[in-house]
Design goal:
alpha/beta; Metallo-beta-lactamase, Chain A; six-stranded mixed beta sheet; 7 helices; 12 strands
């Protein structure tokens, strides 16, 4: 898949525009605060946005999803436990097909109960589940450190080390990195036990 990483809004949010190689149909992940950078990127690339996907329901990731859907005709997609208004509910293992490509939904609760990652076979879009150098907060309503530990260690770390991690915020020293590199450098992934995980600042 071709990946456009876009910075949107005042909280260093990343939004993503994905298209299959040679395709004009696209997926937007986490529109965030504003649609103009996304619409501009889609226009420049000749992309028709088919899906607008929320990795979780927090406002800084979903504020403009409906606006984007109206502007593009896209369907709003969210996990079946998401409280936001959406057109299509998804669960773990569901697939969004896009021309010659597809994106698989991976359920990763911990930051919120409706948190998902999206995996296209090479790239992992992690929302606020996994950042470069850390993971998402678990002390907000719906968060769970136990769920986060399981999502990171029993789900994400089972993916190929060559997988490129694309987070929901520009909080790290680089905007993306391979999962293998993160497994070595990110203390939330290198923690061998749940007790060690809880000690990560």
């Amino acid at each position: 898949m071709r990946v456009r990483q876009l910075v949107v809004g005042p909280m260093q949010n990343f939004s993503y525009l994905l298209t299959g190689a040679g395709d004009t149909d696209g997926i937007v992940i986490d529109s965030g605060w504003e649609t103009s950078p996304i619409l501009r990127a889609a226009h420049e690339g000749g992309v028709k946005v088919r899906y607008a996907v929320a990795t979780h329901h927090h406002f800084d990731h979903t504020a403009s999803l409906k606006e984007l859907a109206v502007a593009t005709g896209a369907k709003v997609v969210a996990h079946e436990r998401s409280p936001i208004d959406h057109d299509t509910s998804v669960a773990d293992g569901d697939v969004l097909r896009l021309g010659t490509g597809q994106v698989r939904i991976i359920y990763t609760p911990g930051h919120t109960v409706d948190s998902v990652c999206l995996f296209d076979g090479e790239n992992l879009f992690t929302g606020d589940t996994l950042f470069i150098g850390n993971c998402g907060r678990t002390d907000l309503p719906g968060g769970s450190p136990e769920d986060m530990f399981r999502s990171l260690h029993d789900v994400i770390l089972k993916l190929p080390p060559s997988t490129v991690v694309y987070p929901g915020h520009d909080y790290g020293d680089v905007p993306s990195r391979t999962l293998g590199e993160e497994a070595l450098s990110n203390p939330t992934l290198s923690a061998a036990t749940y007790r060690e995980f809880l000690k990560v600042p």
